[in-house]
Amino acid sequence: MNLATLGYNEFFGQQKTAQHLETFQMARVIIENKERYVVLSANGEFEAQITGKLRFTANSKMDFPAVGDWVAITETDSNQAIIHEIINRKSYLARKMVDSNDLQLIAANIDVAFITTSVDRDFNLNRIDRYLAIINTGKVQPAILLTKTDLANETDLKSHIELLEKQYTGISIYSLSSLENTGFEPFAKILEKGKTYCFLGSSGVGKSTIINKLIGYNLQETNELSTTTNKGKHTTTRRELIVKENYILIDTPGMREIGLTTDQEGIDTTFPEIMALAGQCKFQNCTHTSEKGCAVIAAIKNNELNERTFENYKKLERERTRLEASIEEKRKTDRQFGKMCKQIMSEKKKSKY
Fold first, then answer.
1. Which one of 36, 85, 101, 349 is most buried, by most CB atoms within 10 A?
2. Cα–Cα distance, 170 to 168 (Å, whole number)
3. pLDDT tens for each residue of 152-206
4. What secondary structure letter does DSSP report for 227?
């Protein structure tokens, strides 16, 4: 298989040279499931494992391969390979893990991430803001995909789309219905050769069904909607990269929680109108709560800024700040523990004499 078909381009070639990996074959991770990998190279598909060096030099989960990563491999036999190193990423998607402050890498080297939301009870602007924050953090181009349009009448659908267009200026918005098979033809036309597209969204919004229709076969079996929830009964359980003739798709499991990272820029990019107004405030350290001369407060009073947008911005920023403080506290504790261990070892050495 031609590596360009897998999304290999000049950027990754430059990284390969910079990392002195010319003697290795290049492959892309197409399946990752609990540190079990399947990679695809010019010679075909291989089950792969990482080297001990890669495992023991990893400082966090972000240092392990993820779906979409380009990796340097050696083939050990007809269907087995060893992953030696990860090629520097062009972009990524990550979120805070539910049970810890660690980051979970969702996928890597994505060109466009579709925030997939249906027109029913899943439709939630605050959730879309969250997705945008992690997408912007990883330098991925965002787009919004409105699904299950058959569940809304023409007036409601138009209202949903107008709301999205007003709220998210500059972000492409698409709509389709898998049940009625509408919207797929124009949607497929925007998918470019050699580009990688990732679908993000809650369970049951139709991500896997959309991918099945785009590739022309059932990658994963999907059932009809539950009559009580309007959600698909099948749920994707692993991340997977699918190579189409002209483009690459990544399916992801539904996410109940979208934990933010500590990246400030991701949130700032998600709320450009607030950042623009903040630059006009009288005081540089304005908290946008009660200060005189606050351009943000003035914009809300004049109906120039949506209050929901500002309240969600504050919520996400508080969450980011708390995470940042929690991580710093853990680092401080770790440093103190390390210092204590050194003192104990020093005392032990002294006691020998």
1. 85
2. 6
3. 899 999 999 999 999 999 999 999 998 888 999 899 999 999 999 999 988 888 8
4. T
**What ranges do the domains of the chain cover?**
3-86, 92-251, 264-333
> And the tokens for 142?
């965002």
Please name the residue ranges forming H helices in 95-175.
125-137, 154-167
DSSP 30-85: EEEETTEEEEEETTEEEEEEE-HHHHHT--SGGGS--TT-EEEEEE-SSSEEEEEE
Question: 10 Å Cβ neighbour count for 70?
Answer: 29
Strand partners of residue 115: 144, 200
Residue 270 to residue 168: CA distance in whole angstroms: 9
Provide the H-helix boundaries in 125-263: 125-137, 154-167, 184-189, 207-215
Q: Is there a shared CATH topology between the 3-86 domain and the 264-333 domain?
A: no
CATH fold label, 264-333: Ribonucleotide Reductase Protein R1; domain 1 (1.10.40)
DSSP class of residue 149 equals G
- CATH superfamily assigned to domain 92-251: P-loop containing nucleotide triphosphate hydrolases (3.40.50.300)
Query: What six digits make up the tokens of 66?
Result: 């993820």
pLDDT band at 340 (very low <50, low <70, confident <90, very high): low
125-137 vs 154-167: helix crossing angle, rounded to 10: 40
Chain centroid to Cα 191, Å, comes to: 18
List, for residues 75-126, the tens digit of each pLDDT value.
Answer: 998 899 999 999 999 999 998 876 677 788 999 999 999 999 999 878 999 9
Query: Under CATH, to which class is 3-86 assigned?
Result: mainly beta
Question: What value does the mean pLDDT of the chain take?
Answer: 86
* Per-residue pLDDT at 331: 60
Residue 86 C-alpha from the chain's centroid: 18
pLDDT at 17: 97
The answer to pTM > 0.70 is: yes
Residues 341, 349 contacting (CB under 8 angstroms):
no
Give the pair of three-digit tokens for residue 221: 């079996």
User: One-letter amino acid identity for 72?
Assistant: A
